Amino acid sequence: MEALLAAAADPAYGATVVAVGADREAAGLARAEQAGIPTFLTPFSGYADRAEWNRALADRIAEFAPDLVVSAGFMRILGREVLSRHPVVNIHPALLPAFPGAHAVRDALAYGVRVTGATAHFVDEGVDTGPVIDQVVVRVEEGDDVASLHERIKAVERRMLVDVVGRLARHGWTLHDRQVKLGSAPSVNATEENR
């Protein structure tokens, strides 16, 4: 989130952060407030079930009328109530479809891969199963543990997320049969699969 705020401070970037939201208290909310960005909190515990929470979250997001939602560090599965109204981009610390889920770096090391990386993808109702937008390879080094490898992946993720969000905002995209085509539309388009 901080990398996106820094990039958006440059008018040439082509994207503006209109709000920062979370499902629980997080340092990113304070950072956004310091930057003068509106924030909101939609705690999961405040709702009877996942569908009700997703509807409330979708309504809160809609108040800011974003063209694109970025799930940076947001660790909850978003449901149809959100995804049918807002295209959502996520970043994942592995080369999807390999190693989905919350323990991707640990799982990649346990499997013994020589390379892993980061994936920017559109979010669908699965766990890290949405259409891939971009990927960057990170080599696994001798002696890597989860912490050291994850730190190198995070550096790649930040750069890739800033690049991908900027390109989507400036040039739009189309999605057909899971193939994301950047720069193929005059403005941001909602993804077919999320409608």
Automatic annotation (TrEMBL):
It is an enzyme of class 2 (transferase). GO terms for biological process: 'de novo' IMP biosynthetic process. CDD domains: FMT_core_GART. Signal peptide: none annotated. Keywords: Purine biosynthesis, Transferase. Pathway: Purine metabolism; IMP biosynthesis via de novo pathway; N(2)-formyl-N(1)-(5-phospho-D-ribosyl)glycinamide from N(1)-(5-phospho-D-ribosyl)glycinamide (10-formyl THF route): step 1/1. One of its GO terms (molecular function) is phosphoribosylglycinamide formyltransferase activity. The keyword Transferase applies. The keyword rRNA processing does not apply. Residues 2-165 form the Formyl transferase N-terminal domain. Its EC number is 2.1.2.2. One of its GO terms (cellular component) is cytosol. This is Phosphoribosylglycinamide formyltransferase. It comes from Actinorugispora endophytica.
